[in-house]
Amino acid sequence: MRKIVAWLEREVSGPYVPLFIVAALACCYLYLVGLGIFVDAFNIVLPKGPKLPTNSPFPILIIVLALGAWVEEVIFRLGPIWVARRLFHASTRSTVVVILIVSACFGYIHAGGHAWFIAIQGVLGVMLSVVFMKCGGLQGRYAKALIASTATHTVHNTIVTLIIVLSR
């Protein structure tokens, strides 16, 4: 656990921020591919996910996705981490526990309570939290951290929406 905490506390900066975001998204999609293979191998039927407004004009859809991502990042990343760090002076280890709990809530809200979607969206929540923490959230640079996690979230939402739209 000490090595994970030490890694989280080393802030990503400069030209490494976009690279870190791409790496985080790549890890997320590798996890999703692995989960998809598992689901297919065991013939697990997943319920339909939430409905997206895919019939809207694309520029408006991107604005809605970005705004939604920003609101979720404020609620599920900035809020809990700020409260843990500033009000309760939580250690990084305690902040990680808070993030795991909040990420499960993030998955639950997206999933309507379905366990498989909690596993999918909860892991995405952890990944977005790691981006937030590594990009300044643990060092009190909340604006930078919020921009990085919101950009990551928006790119993810856009990719998922494109896949849904193009698969029709």
TrEMBL record:
Organism from which the protein derives: Candidatus Liptonbacteria bacterium RIFCSPLOWO2_01_FULL_52_25
UniProt-recorded Gene Ontology molecular function terms: endopeptidase activity
Residue intervals of the CAAX prenyl protease 2/Lysostaphin resistance protein A-like domain: 56-158
Keyword annotations of the record: Membrane, Transmembrane, Transmembrane helix
The keyword NAD belongs to this UniProt entry's keyword annotation: no
Positions of transmembrane segments: 16-38, 58-78, 90-109, 115-133, 145-166
Name the UniProt record assigns to this protein: CAAX prenyl protease 2/Lysostaphin resistance protein A-like domain-containing protein
GO terms classed as biological process: CAAX-box protein maturation
Highest taxon of the lineage: Bacteria
Keyword Membrane listed: yes
InterPro entries with a match to the protein in the record: Rce1/LyrA-like_dom (IPR003675)
